[in-house]
Design a protein that fits this description.
- It is an enzyme of class 3 (hydrolase).
- Keywords: Hydrolase.
- With about 350 residues, the protein is of the alpha/beta class.
- It has twelve helices and 17 strands.
- A hairpin with a 2-residue loop joins β16 and β17.
- The protein starts with 8 loop residues before the first strand and ends with a strand.
């Protein structure tokens, strides 16, 4: 999923009026602003060749593109670049008078709708948003997924089905499976999320009789069978600290990680990151594991781990080899702010400790 980051917004100015608007926006956001050589001023970057060529480059490197110019021109320029609404950057268009800010592409997952509202607020402009859920003042499943940093199986189809239900006045339940998390203070702060249009469900054993479907926010691998369609939205909350011998095989690592996740009944989609000590940053199996699971590989120095190693059993062999008595437990401790889950797996020279991040 593509989520707009303020430091990754490219703005394209085609006229002097566009430059003036961009200067106003730069007072509020860290923007990369492009313009032609003829309009070039301090703080702006010249187009790399043509406007279209520069847009094509930015399309691959920025999470959001803002064009201060005509909608039609923008559509023609970006049309050959479009790939997938789950990965394309947000595209927003602003007229050079600053009267309208238009969410053109990737409104939900890409964050264009949210960016449009923000930019319109800065300029005192009219935000133009046409996605059906927003027009009807409803939440959307893909927006909720972004807010939760969550994923789900068959995400694209689920979003299509659920959002269509919402705009068709069907009743879609929303259940927060707090019990799937190990500790009470790990629970989701539900008031932080946009749930307009969803029907709050407090218990799976007592569902409203008129629901057409149910969204279940859970990190649990399996849910009970219910009589209505259930879409499980899985927040990425689980982290794994991993220690291993040099040249450990990828097949062993992924097998043991899956084993540890299954032991505590976590859905594999709940994995947010793996981590290890700095001496393992180039370990092929760990890098492959990170790529395969599509999660970051976080690295910690020996000094960082030493600050917490007294909390855990130590190995003289590990200390002599690495410089600290344990790896997986202090790594998981740091990744989760001390919210560890269960026991550490120790098999065939591999240690894995799970935690819950916030």
């Amino acid at each position: 999923m593509n989520i707009v980051r303020p430091e990754s917004i490219a703005v394209f100015c085609l006229t002097p009026g566009g430059l003036r608007l961009a200067k106003r926006l730069k007072q509020h956001l860290p923007l990369t602003c492009y313009c032609s050589e003829k309009l070039l001023e301090d703080g702006f970057t010249a187009f790399s060749g043509t406007f279209a060529a520069t847009v094509a480059q930015a399309f691959a490197t920025h999470t959001a593109l803002v064009v201060i110019g005509a909608t039609g021109l923008t559509v023609r320029v970006i049309a050959p670049l479009l790939k997938d609404k789950l990965t394309d950057p947000a595209i927003v268009v602003i007229d050079e008078q600053g009267q309208h800010v238009i969410s053109l592409l990737s409104g939900h997952v890409g964050g264009a709708n949210e960016l449009t509202r923000y930019l319109a607020g800065i300029l005192g402009a009219d935000p133009v948003i046409t996605t059906a859920t927003d027009v009807n003042q409803l939440a959307a499943l893909d927006t909720l997924a972004v807010q939760l940093d969550a994923d789900m199986h068959n995400f694209r189809q689920a979003v299509k089905v659920v959002n269509q239900m919402l705009v068709s006045d069907q009743r879609v339940g929303l259940f927060w499976d707090h019990d799937s998390l190990p500790e009470s203070d790990d629970r989701w702060q539900t008031e932080r999320y946009d749930t307009r249009g969803f029907v709050a469900v407090n218990s799976l054993a007592d569902l409203p009789s008129d629901l057409s479907a149910l969204i279940c926010v859970s990190v649990r691998e399996k849910l009970p069978d219910l009589a209505i369609p259930v879409f499980k939205l899985v927040p990425r909350r689980i982290v794994a600290g991993i220690g291993c011998r040099r040249e450990t095989s990828f097949r062993l690592l992924i097998s043991l990680l899956q084993q540890q996740l299954a032991k505590y009944e976590f859905d594999p989609l709940a994995l947010r990151a793996i981590g290890s000590v700095v001496l393992k940053e180039d370990e092929p199996a760990l890098k492959h594991l990170s790529d395969c699971c599509r999660v970051p590989f976080e690295i910690y120095s020996v000094n960082e781990l030493r600050q917490h190693e007294h909390l855990f059993p130590s190995s003289d062999f590990v200390r002599q080899t690495i410089g600290v008595g344990s790896v997986s437990q202090p790594v998981a401790w740091l990744m989760s702010d001390g919210h560890l889950v269960g026991d550490t797996l120790k098999q065939q020279g591999v240690t894995i400790t799970l935690g819950v991040s916030h």
